């Protein structure tokens, strides 16, 4: 599409991310030539509305939270691009949403009666439609950090409904159109017939305040100095860009929120409380249902990811000249049926793994980031492991729960008491697959684990059960004064050459042995990354007592695991993993701390990294 708009064209060549999947917004922005990626935010719209003076303040705050949440992903991506040096470093994140009313927020009707209540409330009156927008601009700083600023604004449009007869209202309601529209109508379709006049930006009522958005872009790209840069989340008060905006959230889909000045005064205490009860009940109910659906369908989503990954869909799209392919080309490349491929691609789009423009499919930033098989942060290895090993085990979960045993025999025809030393694990391809899985997790989480604590006073480290060495290399990279010995079973050390980085640091060395039986290499820091959860308390005590013997006072043990919440309420990844019924068990930070304490180690720090693994540092007394 030719770019007609000189302001929009300023975004050409920049990565623009839209944190909303509303089809109307997508259409409005696509029509003016904006190229963007869609990454719907998972931020739940559950901020307490009573804490906001106006509905629009609530909406803008939610918009900002959504934008900031999506920004996390992209900041990560920007850093990745920086590290590997092949992409521009200017990201624009756009998140917006909302709609509302003055006092009363009309959301999507839950049934026809609800739609009737909403529409009859609007009949013959003027109401306001608000949309809130939050724009996050990311800038590269010299020290490889990403700086950003948040700009937010709102648009208000007044809409007057004609006097609507019950017959007309019911005809409209029976058309089905109101049911997925906040406010209960769609102005761009049949709902247009209800409207007497519109004052303000019509597109704002459809879903996006394009005019004001372009004006804001104009200000953003005006000569430097017109915006205040902030490293923290701010609304640039006093800058040329407006700050305090109105709006509220009506879900990500269609806007059409309304404010009804002529509606009963909702500021009186009793009425306000009643209103809140109704809204909360509705929101709560909707949230529970959507959580339920997520749980019921979660396995399908996982299998879509596994299958697309196994069929190399993401690699195939990346390898095409333009990075885009039509379904039939993908089908040909992956040697699959047209019908099946089309459905798989559609499902991937719905999960945010792919994006589609017309008939062309392309990777999203998220899939480029994590799903290309040769990407530096590829999770392909772990995904394959989940598909080939964890999935069959979980197919027998019911028996696993009844018997309290792992289901290797049922799933693979062979029992497995010690995953690392039995015949099944010893098979070359199984071991390699396992190592690839460990490698991919270590690549993604290694940097955060390695930088979790200040280790500058230590000279040597030993990564026990270091597998491919990925974690050891991360520690060496993060601590220039540290030499790291990677220790693992002989057959693993033998295969670790497959994973040696091309710029391998010679401060990392490899030693073969059995950490339960053999002497451990001497070190100031012992790293146990994803080791202890594999073993019973009894075995953990054997290992820790060997480490304690090897340690001088002041030396330390760094344990990296998924830490369970102390009250076991979350996060659930560790609890889910525990269902594979290995000999070991998942533990909380304080449980690890107690285990270490019994071997003379005092907990110095616990770090929740917000990555796949957390870490605890314990020092020998
Ligand atoms: N630490 C690595 C990481 O975080 O990526 C790998 C963790 S993996 C779950 C467990 C590792 O412990 C495997 O590499 C396995 O070969 C190693 N291992 C298991 N039993 C061992 C033993 N008795 N002696 C040495 N290493 C062992």
TrEMBL record:
GO BP, one annotated term: methylation
The UniProt record lists the keyword Membrane: yes
Top-rank taxon: Eukaryota
Boundaries of every O-methyltransferase dimerisation domain copy: 294-371
Record Pfam families: Dimerisation, Maf, Methyltransf_2
Alphabetical list of CDD domains matching this protein: Maf
Chain ranges of the O-methyltransferase C-terminal domain: 394-601
Matches recorded under NCBIfam families: maf
Hydrolase as UniProt keyword: yes
Residue numbers spanned by region Disordered: 228-286
Keywords recorded for this protein, A-Z: Hydrolase, Membrane, Methyltransferase, S-adenosyl-L-methionine, Transferase, Transmembrane, Transmembrane helix
Record PANTHER family: BIFUNCTIONAL DTTP/UTP PYROPHOSPHATASE/METHYLTRANSFERASE PROTEIN-RELATED, BIFUNCTIONAL DTTP_UTP PYROPHOSPHATASE_METHYLTRANSFERASE PROTEIN-RELATED
Assembly with partners or alone: Homodimer.
Originating organism: Salmo trutta
Name of this protein: Acetylserotonin O-methyltransferase-like
TM helices/strands, residue ranges: 74-97
GO MF entries: nucleoside triphosphate diphosphatase activity; O-methyltransferase activity; protein dimerization activity
Co-factor requirement: a divalent metal cation
Biased composition (Polar residues): 228-240, 268-277
